[in-house]
Structures
1.
Amino acid sequence: MHTIYQTTITHIGEHACDALLDNMLITFREGAPADIEAFCFIHSHGALNADLAPGCTLELAGHRYPVTAVGSVAGQNLRELGHITLRFDGSEQAEYPGCVHVAGQTPCDIPTGSTIKFIA
């Protein structure tokens, strides 16, 4: 297995955990506009070394989730903005172009310092 992308959560926006109640996690790299930052898990931005695709694995805060669908612009958004919306619903079709869907239970606690990593 090789790492496609890896980053560390450095800040959690005031309303970011609210999305977890809807089985979503929204990320953005450091330097996000303040109105967006409030709803995101902010991270130090890493390099995207390959395309995200169904079949790869998300490692988040010590848990592994199989990737089931990737929206058409999710990779570009992650590369350029550090922005994706993770959906913990196991869907095999992306709901929106910037979504990455994974199978598994939505995490209830993602502390600052947690790692987000995609591996293939």
2.
Amino acid sequence: MLKNLAVGAVAALGLASLSPVAKAEDPIRIGSFLSVTGPAAFLGDPELKTLELYVHQLNENGGLLGREVQLVHYDDSGDASKARTFVTRLLRQDKVDLIIGGSTTGATMAAVPVIEQARVPFISLAGAETISTPVKKWVFKMPQSDRQAARRVLTDMKERGLTRIGLISGTGGFGASGRNVTLEEAKAMGIEVVADETYNPKDTDVTAQLTRIRNTDGVQAVLNFDFGQGPAIVTKNYKQLGIELPFYQSHGVASDSFLKLAGDAAKGLRLPATALLVADTIPDSDPQHGVVTGYKKAYEDRYNSSVSTFGGYAYDGFQLAVQAIKQAGSTDPAKVRDALESIQGYVGVTGTYNLSAKDHMGLSYDSFRILEVKDGHWTLVE
């Protein structure tokens, strides 16, 4: 019943013969466009599985406002032009009530003008600051921003006495945005970026760039800002070159799939991530303990695979959408949008959300935990 649907199919989760959901009214339709295949599949696959899981659970428990919930999903394969086309279809043809999606920054930003014009609430699962800053009336997002990730990493570096760093980043949308905010945050924090290198996300070797960073006088640590295959290649090349400087990645690789790609080369690296990756070690007293362990168990029991930070974004996006629709008492777009904007103190997998008219993300930078790879696993840095 929770099959991975083909492009354009409706996830009619909660069929009449199996669900207690009333059929007197039309279903509530939640649209989604995610990168389930292609280079960003490690983002979109757990996101879609999470949405399918919780739509199913919701329908099994009576639906939403007494109505069945349907998920209408399209796979954009990480292609921004496809994302724009699919969002147009969701709005004009499928008549969805709300959209959760955008695995990548490029796909999200391609969709934003269409969504803003249509005046339908949109919850993005991508990370770049530009998605929610400046605030766009109909656009919300779940992950912490790349600026917050940069600030969290730089804070950890400074606490370790590392104030002269090398930066290497991808030239795609996420990497380029991450590079820009890192340079700005470093300057504000009194950290000097003494080497600044980039690579194409399709590059298969970055030893030349890493060699230049290694040979830079006074460099004390290195940060790689990107997502996808690139960071795993950077990590392997880093080890191959025998660089012994402290090494950091961004939140763009916060998943077990990255550890599998990078292998032993990931030993000792640090990154900012959510509590989800160390769910089994956070104390019962932690406000996120219940929601993080609950999501982890539900997902892993259903799919027999590890949770990822990215699926957690989808969990939070869906739960906030449900809360907003309940609060609005209808699917009226303006009422749902206003309800989303008013949510305060929601404790999610990613952090505690406090949304407002001035903040459509609602997370503070300290919602990030600093993790380090030890013995092939993520561990919390105390």
3.
Amino acid sequence: MNARLDFHSNPIGAKHVKYLASAGQALLATSVPKATMELMALRISQINGCGFCADMHTKDAAHAGETPVRINLVATWREATVFTDPERAALELAEQGTRIADAAGGVSDEVWANAAKHYDEDQLVALVSAITLLNALNRLNVIIQQPAGDYQPGQFG
């Protein structure tokens, strides 16, 4: 399977992806645990059906030391006992922030209040920024049918 477009070899596409990547770089300084960010990214990618991003975030999470059990259970995090309350709050925020069209009104006040109970303002900004960025990247890869399976941890620096 080949992608419909090679964004990296197209001047406009390469510039666009570069800007998206630089937006992601701003999130590296957050105090939100890397594991939480990767688990959120994986869950968002699962919801959006982005095989490329699900492959990437599964492998990046494992490379960063995340356990196979937690990686495998992120799709069913509500029923799993292996996630902390802050991780659950982040995963629920990620789900509602991704499924905006499915939930009249977007992210509920209850979900926001729960996230705010576990994360300070800077961390909430990082979580919301990560959710929006991941949704944009998922959509790009789904639209161009970017194939999954060949990603190597650290491939994009």
